[in-house]
Amino acid sequence: MRAALLVLLLALAPALHAATFRATVTHVTDGDSLWVKPAGSSGAIELRLLDLDAPESCQSYGPQAKTALRARLLNENVRVRTRGVDDYNRQLARVEHQGKDVGAWMVSQGYAWSMTFHGKRGPYEKLEAQARRERKGLWSLPGALEPRSFRKRFGRCQ
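^ Thermonuclease family protein, sequence as received from the core. Prediction below:
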């Protein structure tokens, strides 16, 4: 009985971290991480945008990705839907600004890759393919290297 309860709790753990709320963006760390202050709260929380991976800050097109996200969201009101936490204790989230998915916009403009999961392409796959065809953003550069591969090869930015 205890084992069954433990398995159930572990299966539900991501849902326990799920929430939807309105917030104001207070800081943009890079092209896929930002801080928001939930409405009615005095503290800010760090978010990691779901289903995409933006270039590292020291990687080609990393500064442009951060600048684009900052220009679009800093001090703006957003709708946040969280779904769990990552290894760095950031809330994993979809963020909407003026009713539009910010992650979709980042990928469609060539500021980020659509994340892959166990060999399966993520929800922004078609947007990434279109950005590649149109040579938008990071796709205008020869040999764009996915951040995961960049970190394996060169380590994290300092």
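The chain is about 30% helix and 30% strand.
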